[in-house]
Amino acid sequence: MLKITKFGGSSVANATQFKKVKAIVQADPSRKYVVVSAPGKRNSSDNKITDLLYLLDAHRQYHVDASNVYRLIRQRFVDIKTELGLKQPIEKELDTFYTNLNTYTQAQIVSRGEYFCAKLMAEYLGYDFVDAKDIIRFNLDKTIDMQATAAKLQAKCAQYEHFVFPGFYGSSANNQIQVFSRGGGDITGSILAKCLNADMYENWTDVSGFLMADPKIVDHPKQITHITYSELRELSYMGASVLHEEAIFPVKEANIPIHILNTNHPEDPGTIIQERTNIKNPYAITGIAGKEGFVSIYIYKKHMSSEVGYIRKVLSILEMYNVSVEHIPSGIDSFSVVVNKSDVQDSLYEILARIKTELKPDEIHTEENLALISTVGKSMSDSPGVAGKLFKSLGDQKINIRMIAQSSDEINITVAVLCKDFKATIRSIYDAFVTKEDQNV
């Protein structure tokens, strides 16, 4: 068996965390290739190394003295080296990096957190260091050249039995360092798993996988032990974020499972993400997630159904203002467009005026302070009465549903409610599908 093992920023925040990583890696000989992020926060008032590197770059760009920021970065790495008794000449390499700061691009600067962390981790584990710049290749359109990346990666595997690999970056088509979006270490691990045809991609972080609901809203929600990529995508979009959602795609097609695990509690079972599995969910739903801060634009026009392209024209106006549409519930002569309030914060009245002028609706108004809650579950399509149970649970709590939408693959039912009912809605759905089910067992 081959496992790609990726450790997030909280897992490599200091020497104590490095020791936990080593114990985890040594506990399983199939953990041959390790991917690391830059050191994260050691406590709530601390700084992530990547944030400090972005700040260092800002000082460079505006010609402001960056020595204080650099000292913080340097000290973090030196502290790890000293406490672990490592011999890596990290001080010299860091000082050279800072001396040449003005010759680097932003991507080069912010990628150094992963680079230096991987150098230290490689020595600590007794593994070889492989630089992502020499392996991961971006195309001109910023997609990954999987064929070239796989060839280079397989050559390194033939050369080294074990190695540590920095996440977050690779090299562009013209051989310059190029970074992923924040959280890109997750994507790096996924790429390695895909290119090496791994049996498992382990993603170690500071939580024990996914929960069926936000623990800040529901007391002691159940752990999700297994979830499909499709379900995860739905929940992640609505705010249940543990894994960078782009990390799903490289391994989804190959059906390589992702195992979310907790570095601080390695004994916890975690959550396994896999599209095709024979494991049956004990509940009709997999999870509940939601977000507040939406606006609904309601439009009515007589005989709208006979007018070709009316909805498209409204959407074209929203597109001009770079507004993304969440949902479009519709009737015969009316429809609503649900958008994120932050997207229309400065342009809502201008958009409404333009719709009135160009499309002359008989009625148009907005409703603000809306929240969207998604109930997600692959088993829902095979479980009669799910929608009825959901709506009854909200009706019993006197919660007024402002909008209903169901995904075409029937794994998601989304409702809109007023923000004041946001938490009560999530609790009500959870109680109906989990708490009461447990009580009936």
Counted by DSSP, the helix tally is 14
Q: Tell me the name of the CATH class of the largest domain.
A: Alpha Beta
Chain-averaged pLDDT = 93
Please list the strands of the largest sheet in the order they lie side by side: 3-4-2-1-7-11-12-10
Indicate how many domains the architecture comprises. 2
Please give a structural write-up.
This protein is 37% helix and 21% strand. The chain is an alpha/beta fold and 441 residues long. It has two domains: 3-273, Carbamate kinase; 287-440, VC0802-like (2-Layer Sandwich). The longest helix is centred in the last third of the chain and has 19 residues, at 422-440. It is globular, with a radius of gyration of 25 Å. The model has no long low-confidence stretch (mean pLDDT 93). Keywords: Amino-acid biosynthesis, ATP-binding, Diaminopimelate biosynthesis, Kinase, Lysine biosynthesis, Nucleotide-binding, Transferase. It is an enzyme of class 2 (transferase). Catalyzes the phosphorylation of the beta-carboxyl group of aspartic acid with ATP to yield 4-phospho-L-aspartate, which is involved in the branched biosynthetic pathway leading to the biosynthesis of amino acids threonine, isoleucine and methionine. One of its GO terms (cellular component) is cytosol.
